[in-house]
């Protein structure tokens, strides 16, 4: 396959982003890494976010760790999603870090989760364990906008999880909380701590957590996009 030119500047429009999506479809992670002149890790246990960072660099995402969409100029978030050869998501999708201290005046509409999920570029990557990392191939990327019904569920989940945080009950949150959205540990190892509050509103150090989208929702998205059977 002929190598594609890497993109050194962010896309200026949705049309330009769609053009880049067409060019990247079908490429392997190894081909993109070669183009960017970066080394492919031996495994992704340590470099878990490597694939997403590779795609971000290649497509011209600029936000980095900022609490706003990756393609800042056009308001689009980029989410890579590892899938099986049958098109099923292999893991939950990280959205953003969850603050464990109350954010004064924050609402669903001002939250980072809301900003991140308004308009998303999904980049599925066929990532079965038996496929070497360099040979893992990008399927067809697609753009998605959250619809009213789905947004109401995300908002309800966010309110439920945020209320538990506000009342210092973050240690009571389990995988059972939330329908589309869930709160999960987000740290390199179990020794990492971040600032939070306890039930009495006093400062406390607690394991960092992040907002994640459940695989049940991303499976639904993939089924709709690629007309897959459940």
Strand content bin? 15-25%
Q: How much helix is in the residues?
A: 25-40%
Number of helices: 6
- By CATH reckoning, the class would read Alpha Beta
Helix-strand category: alpha+beta
Which properties best describe this structure?
29% helix; 3-stranded mixed sheet; single chain; ECO RV Endonuclease, Chain A; alpha+beta; disordered N terminus; 3-stranded antiparallel sheet
Structure description:
The structure is a single chain. Helix content is 29%, strand content 19%. It has 230 residues and is α+β, with helices and mostly antiparallel strands. It has one domain (14-226): ECO RV Endonuclease, Chain A. The strands form three sheets. The protein has a three-stranded mixed β-sheet. Strands 2-8-5 form a three-stranded antiparallel β-sheet. It has a two-stranded antiparallel sheet with strand order 6-7. Strand 6 and strand 7 (203-206) form a beta hairpin. The model is unreliable at 1-5 (pLDDT under 50).
Fold topology:
Layout: H1 14-24, H2 29-36, H3 50-59, E1 77-83, E2 93-98, H4 112-117, E3 119-126, E4 142-145, H5 148-166, E5 181-185, E6 194-197, E7 203-206, E8 209-213, H6 215-226
Parallel strand pairs: 1-3
Antiparallel strand pairs: 2-8, 3-4, 5-8, 6-7
Helix pairs in contact: 2-3
Task: Offer a quick outline of the entry.
With 230 residues, the protein is of the alpha+beta class. It has a single domain, classed as ECO RV Endonuclease, Chain A. The chain has six helices and eight strands.
């Amino acid at each position: 396959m002929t190598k594609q030119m890497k993109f050194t500047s962010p896309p200026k429009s949705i049309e330009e982003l769609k053009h880049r999506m067409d060019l990247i479809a079908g490429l392997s992670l190894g081909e993109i890494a070669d183009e960017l002149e970066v080394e492919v890790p031996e495994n992704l246990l340590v470099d878990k976010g490597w694939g997403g960072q590779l795609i971000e660099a290649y497509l011209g995402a600029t936000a980095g760790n900022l609490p706003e969409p990756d393609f800042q100029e056009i308001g689009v978030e980029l989410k890579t999603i590892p899938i099986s050869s049958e098109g099923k998501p292999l893991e939950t999708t990280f959205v953003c870090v969850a603050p464990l201290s109350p954010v004064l005046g924050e609402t669903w509409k001002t939250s980072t989760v809301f900003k991140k999920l308004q308009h998303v570029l999904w980049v599925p990557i066929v990532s079965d364990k038996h496929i070497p990392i360099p040979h893992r191939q990008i399927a067809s990327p697609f753009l998605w906008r959250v619809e009213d019904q789905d947004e109401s569920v995300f908002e309800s989940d966010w309110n439920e999880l945020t209320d538990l945080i506000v009342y210092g009950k973050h240690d009571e949150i389990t995988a059972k909380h939330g329908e589309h959205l869930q709160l999960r540990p987000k740290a390199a190892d179990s020794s990492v701590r971040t600032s939070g509050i306890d039930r009495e509103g006093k400062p406390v150090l607690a394991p960092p957590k992040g907002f994640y989208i459940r695989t049940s929702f991303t499976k639904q998205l993939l089924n709709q996009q690629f007309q897959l059977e459940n």
